[in-house]
Structure formats: C-alpha cells, structure tokens
C-alpha cells in the first residue's frame, strides 16, 4: 500500500529528521530517548501522520531544540489551508478539556476514516472541486492530533449512522472497526440512540459542546456550509440540557458498544 504523505506535515517531518541527524541519532535511538513508538516516529518523519503536540514536546526535549519543534507544530496548525471558520473552531477544539458531540446521520468527524470522510464530503458537497474536498479531508483527519492528550471525548450518535451504508460494505466495516478500536482503547465514550425511536430532542441537527479551563463553555451547531459558535450563557445552557436529554434517550456505553459489534457483523 502506498504511503499517503500529508503536505502540511511533510515539513515537520523533514525538520525532525534533520535535527535527529544533526544530533547523531538513529530513529531507534530517538525512539527510545523520546518515548515515541518506532512506527509513529517513522510516520512523523515521512509526513504520513500528523503529530500531536505531545509528540513535538517530547521530540524537543530529546533533541534539545529549545522548543523549535513545538513552535513549528503551532505554525503549521495555524497556517493549514482550510476555511477560516474551520480554523477558528479548530483552535477551540485544541483548547477543550471536554468535547461532547451528537450526530444524527453520519459518524462524527473525529471518528471517521479517510475513505468515509472523503466519500461523505464528496456526496454532500458536489459543488466543490476535488482539491477542495481533499484539503478539507486532510484538515478533518488532522483534528484528532491537535486535541489535548487529557481531553474527554463523549459522543451520542443515532443508530442510523451505523446502518446507513456510505459507499460500500468494506468502507463501513473499516469505519466500524475504527470506532470500536477507539472505544476499546478508552480514547472515547460513545452512546447509541437505537432505532426505531419517536421524535427526540436531537432532530434539530448535529450539536457539539466544548468545555475549557479558565473560560466559559461554548456550543457549536452545524449547518450546510459551516458551523456556528454559540457562546451566550443562556443558549449554551439550553444546548447542554438538550445533550443531556439525548444521553437519556441513548443506550449506556457498554450496551452501545455491544450494539455496534452486532451491527459490524452485517458488514462481513
């Protein structure tokens, strides 16, 4: 399988490799010194995976760069060619200590595979050229690596999102495998609202809630061409109440995982 190089992170990888070589270290030596897995370090250097800020910090310490790689990491995150509204929301996500999200028809963006994200964007945005879709897919995939390492991620998703076939059976099998892997690793908590269900509080559309340290929480409401930031206290409170109502409609995390495993069998 060909390695997919992310142009936005090729620069970071090249700089990491240059500084490693200047320090007289092999990848194996740097891996042990920085505490980063061999596969991750290799992927960072060849630009096929976006590093988290934690990785940049560990590499800075191991290579005694004085913070150069963290500064480069921040520069790349701030300059990636994505819509301005998406970049602003990305900055909020980066600072969030807790992120809760409800989705009705699609797997949440943070949990999507590349193929799922590409197919969903292409079908939903037929007016956009291929290079714009590819750019936004890269930005969506990079979001995970910009989150705080200690961020709590909690998702509520309608069962329909797991049974609606996006492109083909193989894609859905890979997508459900990715979701189950994230749940099993403890990276996320996920609840499923089973079908059939009567009208419930989430029929108004996708919703996200972000909590921070030292600043007020915000809510995010998606629409066709972007996402609106909601920061007035009364409106945020209503959104939080709505999310709580959605959790009450959903199965428990354990029951939800069991359901997804059963749905996964339909894609064999």
From TrEMBL:
One of its GO terms (molecular function) is DNA binding. Residues 17-59 form the HTH cro/C1-type domain. Transmembrane segments: none annotated. Gene3D superfamilies: lambda repressor-like DNA-binding domains (1.10.260.40). InterPro entries: Cro/C1-type_HTH, DUF5753, Lambda_DNA-bd_dom_sf. This is Helix-turn-helix protein. It comes from Haloactinospora alba.
């Amino acid at each position: 399988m060909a390695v997919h190089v992310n142009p936005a992170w090729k620069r970071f990888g090249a700089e990491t490799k240059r500084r490693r070589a200047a320090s007289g270290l092999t990848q194996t030596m740097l891996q042990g010194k920085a505490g980063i897995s061999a596969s991750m370090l290799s992927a960072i250097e060849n630009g096929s995976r976006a590093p988290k800020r934690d990785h940049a910090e560990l590499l800075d310490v191991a290579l005694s760069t004085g913070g150069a790689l963290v500064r480069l990491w921040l520069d790349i995150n701030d300059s990636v060619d994505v819509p301005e509204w998406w970049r602003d929301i990305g900055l909020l996500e980066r600072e969030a200590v807790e992120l809760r999200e409800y989705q009705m028809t699609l797997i949440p963006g943070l949990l999507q595979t590349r193929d799922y994200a590409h197919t969903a964007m292409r079908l939903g945005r037929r007016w956009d050229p291929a290079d714009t879709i590819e750019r936004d897919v890269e930005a969506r995939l990079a979001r995970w690596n910009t989150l705080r390492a200690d961020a709590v991620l909690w998702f509520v998703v309608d069962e329909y999102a797991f049974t609606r076939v996006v492109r083909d059976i193989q894609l859905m099998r890979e997508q459900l495998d990715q979701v189950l892997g994230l749940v099993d690793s403890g990276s996320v908590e996920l609840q499923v609202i089973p079908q059939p269900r009567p009208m419930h509080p989430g029929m108004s559309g996708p919703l996200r809630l972000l909590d921070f340290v030292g600043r007020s929480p915000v809510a995010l409401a998606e629409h066709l061409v972007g996402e609106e930031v909601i920061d007035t206290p009364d409106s945020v409170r209503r959104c939080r109440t709505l999310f709580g109502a959605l959790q009450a409609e959903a199965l428990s995390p354990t029951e939800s995982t069991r359901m997804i495993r059963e749905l996964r069998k339909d894609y064999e």
